[in-house]
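[Discussion] Sanity-checking designs against the backbone

I'm trying to build intuition for which residues belong where. Below is a C-alpha cell string of 494 positions. I'd appreciate it if someone posts a full sequence so I can compare it with mine line by line.
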C-alpha cells in the first residue's frame, strides 16, 4: 500500500474538452501529467470513462431537481449539455467519445512511466437500466414482480430487453431509487462471481478502483434496503461479505491493486477490515466545515491504522467546492490540515485554481471561471512542501498545545502535529479559528541546551528559539485567524 498518497480526481468527460476536439485518452498531452507529478500527485482518478446509455438521458436526466441544479451551476445550459450520469454504465468498456481499450491501456502505460498510478470507477451497486447485460446476464440483477411494480413504479421497472420482466432500480436506502439504473443482486452467487470477474478485467488496465457507494453491498445494508423484495424471491443473506471475497481474490492475483471505498454511515472501519486500502473520510470534512476544533482533534486521535487508510478531502465531485464551503480565509488552513495528516489526500480538478462551481455529474460542459492566483500560488507552495519524503514515510504524532498564559484559553484553537524521519522533522501548527490565538507547544527536538533554528516553509521566515524553553514550558506560538506554520528543523533528508 502507498504511504500517505496524493490522489487527483478529474471529471474526464468535461475536463478533456480543454484540448483539441475529438482527442482520446491516449492523446492527452504528457505535459499535463508531468505537471501533476511535479507537485507530488501519486494517483490519478479519471471519473466517468465508461460507456453509458444515451437513450436514458431524455427519460431520466430532466427531473426538476436536476434542472434546477443545472441552472445553478451553468446558467446558459442547453439540453445537449446533458450527457447522463457516469455511474449508470452499460458495461466496463471505454466511452467511444474518449477512445477505446487501447487508448486506455496507453494512458495507463504513460502514467506508470511517470511514476503515477491509475485508478478507475467501479460501480458495484448497479448498471444502466438500458445495459446490454440485461439481455445477456439477467440473472445478476435483483428481480421484482408485477405487484411491487404496480405499487411503486419509481423503484421497480419493466424492461423490454428481458420479456417485460420486472427488476429493481439501484438505490441508496436513504433516497429514492435512481431510475437510470438496475440493481445488482448481491445475494445471488452468480451476481457476485460476475462482479468479481469484472474486477479481474479491470486489473489489466489500471492500478486500482474507486468503488462507488461501497457500503451498499454489505450484507446487512443490502438486506435492510431490499428486505421486502428478498423475502418474495427467496434470496437469503450470504455467510461471507462480498468485499472480503472479492478483495482477497483480486489481491491474490495483483497484491498491490488499490481499493478505495466511497463510504459513509460509520461503516468505514468495517470496510477497511474487509480489505479496503482506503475509505472516504467525509466525517472529517464535515467537522472541519463546522469549525468544531475539539471534534477535529478527537477525530485525529483515532487509531493510526484507521487514519492511514482514510481518504481525506475538502471537495470532490459530490461536494461543494472548498472555496465556497470553507470560505477564502478558512480554506488555506483546511488545505494545510488535510495535506499534512496521515492517510490519502484526495484533490479535485479545479481545487488548485479556486473554482467555485459544483458541476452536476450529468452535465458535459462547465462555466468559464477565472483562476484565483492567490489560491493557485498557495497550493503550488503547499503541494511542493508536502511532496517531501517525510510526509510520506515519516512518523506522525499529534501534539497537545498548552495555555500561553493562565487566563488565555485561545490555545484550544490550535491544532499541531509533528512528522519525523531519521533526524529530520516537520512541525505543523494551525490556528483553526476566527481569532488571534496563542499557545505553548512542546515537541521532540534533537538536542538539549543551546538554540534551534525553525524554518517556516509556508511563510519563508526563519526563527531561532531556545531549546531549554521548548523542553520546559514549550515554544510560544501566536497565529492570526486561520494562519499556519509548517516548520522544518533537523537534518534535511527530503
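Best answer:
Here's mine. Compare freely.
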Amino acid at each position: 500500500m502507498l504511504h500517505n498518497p496524493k490522489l487527483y480526481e478529474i471529471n474526464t468527460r468535461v475536463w478533456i474538452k480543454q484540448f483539441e476536439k475529438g482527442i482520446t485518452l491516449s492523446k492527452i498531452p504528457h505535459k499535463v501529467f508531468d505537471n501533476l507529478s511535479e507537485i507530488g500527485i501519486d494517483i490519478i482518478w479519471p471519473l466517468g470513462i465508461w460507456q453509458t446509455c444515451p437513450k436514458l438521458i431524455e427519460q431520466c436526466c430532466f427531473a426538476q431537481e436536476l434542472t434546477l441544479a443545472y441552472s445553478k451551476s451553468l446558467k446558459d445550459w442547453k439540453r445537449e449539455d446533458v450527457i447522463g450520469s457516469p455511474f449508470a454504465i452499460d458495461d466496463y468498456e471505454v466511452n467511444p467519445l474518449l477512445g477505446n481499450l487501447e487508448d486506455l491501456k496507453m494512458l495507463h502505460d504513460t502514467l506508470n512511466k511517470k511514476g503515477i498510478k491509475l485508478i478507475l470507477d467501479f460501480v458495484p451497486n448497479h448498471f444502466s437500466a438500458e445495459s446490454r447485460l440485461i439481455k445477456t446476464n439477467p440473472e445478476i440483477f435483483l428481480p421484482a414482480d408485477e405487484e411491487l411494480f404496480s405499487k411503486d413504479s419509481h423503484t421497480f421497472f419493466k424492461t423490454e430487453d428481458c420479456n417485460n420482466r420486472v427488476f429493481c432500480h439501484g438505490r441508496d436506502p436513504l433516497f429514492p431509487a435512481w431510475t437510470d439504473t438496475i440493481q445488482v443482486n448481491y445475494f445471488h452467487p452468480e451476481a457476485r462471481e460476475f462482479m468479481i470477474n469484472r474486477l479481474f478485467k479491470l486489473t489489466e488496465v489500471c492500478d486500482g478502483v474507486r468503488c462507488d457507494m461501497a457500503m451498499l453491498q454489505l450484507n446487512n445494508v443490502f438486506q435492510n434496503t431490499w428486505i421486502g423484495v428478498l423475502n418474495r424471491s427467496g434470496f437469503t443473506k450470504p455467510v461471507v461479505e462480498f468485499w472480503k471475497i472479492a478483495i482477497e481474490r483480486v489481491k491474490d492475483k495483483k497484491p498491490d491493486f488499490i481499493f478505495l471505498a466511497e463510504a459513509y454511515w460509520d461503516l468505514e472501519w468495517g470496510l477497511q477490515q474487509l480489505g479496503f486500502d482506503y475509505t472516504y473520510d467525509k466525517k472529517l470534512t464535515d467537522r472541519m466545515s463546522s469549525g468544531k476544533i475539539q471534534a477535529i482533534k478527537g477525530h485525529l486521535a483515532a487509531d493510526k491504522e484507521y487514519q492511514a487508510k482514510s481518504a481525506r478531502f475538502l471537495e470532490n465531485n459530490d461536494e461543494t467546492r472548498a472555496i465556497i464551503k470553507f470560505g477564502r480565509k478558512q480554506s488555506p488552513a483546511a488545505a494545510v490540515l488535510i495535506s499534512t495528516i496521515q492517510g490519502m489526500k484526495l484533490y479535485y480538478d479545479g481545487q488548485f485554481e479556486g473554482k467555485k462551481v459544483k458541476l452536476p455529474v450529468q452535465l458535459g460542459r462547465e462555466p468559464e471561471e477565472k483562476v484565483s492566483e492567490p489560491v493557485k500560488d498557495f497550493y503550488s507552495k503547499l503541494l511542493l512542501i508536502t511532496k517531501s519524503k517525510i510526509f510520506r514515510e515519516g512518523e506522525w504524532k499529534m501534539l497537545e498545545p498548552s495555555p500561553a498564559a493562565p487566563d488565555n484559553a485561545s490555545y484550544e484553537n490550535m491544532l499541531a502535529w509533528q512528522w519525523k524521519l531519521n533526524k529530520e522533522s516537520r512541525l505543523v501548527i494551525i490556528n483553526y479559528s476566527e481569532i488571534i490565538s496563542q499557545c505553548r507547544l512542546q515537541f521532540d527536538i534533537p538536542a538539549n541546551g543551546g538554540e534551534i533554528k525553525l524554518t517556516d516553509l509556508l511563510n519563508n521566515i526563519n526563527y531561532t528559539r531556545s531549546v531549554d524553553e521548548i523542553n520546559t514550558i514549550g515554544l510560544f506560538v501566536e497565529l492570526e485567524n486561520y494562519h499556519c506554520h509548517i516548520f522544518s528543523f533537523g537534518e534535511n533528508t527530503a
